[in-house]
């Protein structure tokens, strides 16, 4: 019987939004807070996509993305709730870089929290993990220095020095499978963004991903900043994740 021992997990993980495919908690897919999970059917541990939400927190776009991932790929999708922290700092761009970096440090902690929680999540196949993030969450996914994840998807973050970070400080290594999906005119991190005025930026990750044979940058024309639910983005992510979890 699958179960989750969540009573002693940190709040960002206890209050994480979880989506499971049909057959784990009944005939229909299941979505809810991790703390509410009470699976009723036995089964094999599932691959897990850890998704780091952006600065707006968990919202309908995030939930739709998780439902898509579980329905399409038959995997678990978990998004820690960064705002479940007490007195979690917030910012309004443009802000001093120290404010951004204080939040980036918290987002790194949330990845570590999830990895530490895996022994309490027996329905997760800890050998088949993928890390994804969007915008602020994309910084977290890019900076993580561990080797626990089979691959990473970074949405809406250019992996380069710009107004949002003291420096990019990417944590992925040269052989990391990585998919970076960006708008070709991102309003925050693009070359012509108002926030990057006076800075020498490319607005993409070409230089950051140079020399990485398993990495790919995809620029989506005229796309919004939050783009992970666009049909092209989903198509790219489907192929990437199927390759990881084959």
TrEMBL record:
InterPro entries: AB_hydrolase_fold. This is Alpha/beta hydrolase. It comes from Chromobacterium amazonense. The lineage of its organism: Bacteria, Pseudomonadati, Pseudomonadota, Betaproteobacteria, Neisseriales.
């Amino acid at each position: 019987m699958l179960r989750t021992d969540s009573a002693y997990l940190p709040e960002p993980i206890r209050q994480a939004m979880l989506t499971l495919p049909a057959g784990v908690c009944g005939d229909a897919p299941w979505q809810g807070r991790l703390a509410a999970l009470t699976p009723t059917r036995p089964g094999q541990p599932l691959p897990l996509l850890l998704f780091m939400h952006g600065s707006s927190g968990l919202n309908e776009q995030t939930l739709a993305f998780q439902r898509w991932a579980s329905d399409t790929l038959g995997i678990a999708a978990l998004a820690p709730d960064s705002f479940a922290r007490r007195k979690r700092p917030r910012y309004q761009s443009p802000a001093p870089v120290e404010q951004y970096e204080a939040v980036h440090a918290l987002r790194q902690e949330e990845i570590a929290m999830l990895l530490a929680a895996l022994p309490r999540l027996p329905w997760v196949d800890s050998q088949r993990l993928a890390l994804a993030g969007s915008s602020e969450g994309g910084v977290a996914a890019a900076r993580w220095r561990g080797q626990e994840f089979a691959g990473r998807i970074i949405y809406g973050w250019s992996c380069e020095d710009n107004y949002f970070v003291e420096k990019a400080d990417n944590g992925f290594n040269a052989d990391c499978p990585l998919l970076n999906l960006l708008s070709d005119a991102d309003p925050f991190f693009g070359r012509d963004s108002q926030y990057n005025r006076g800075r020498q930026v490319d607005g993409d990750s070409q230089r950051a991903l140079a020399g990485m044979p398993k990495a790919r940058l995809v620029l989506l024309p005229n796309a919004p900043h939050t783009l992970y639910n666009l049909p092209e983005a989903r198509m790219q992510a489907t192929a990437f994740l199927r390759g990881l979890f084959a």
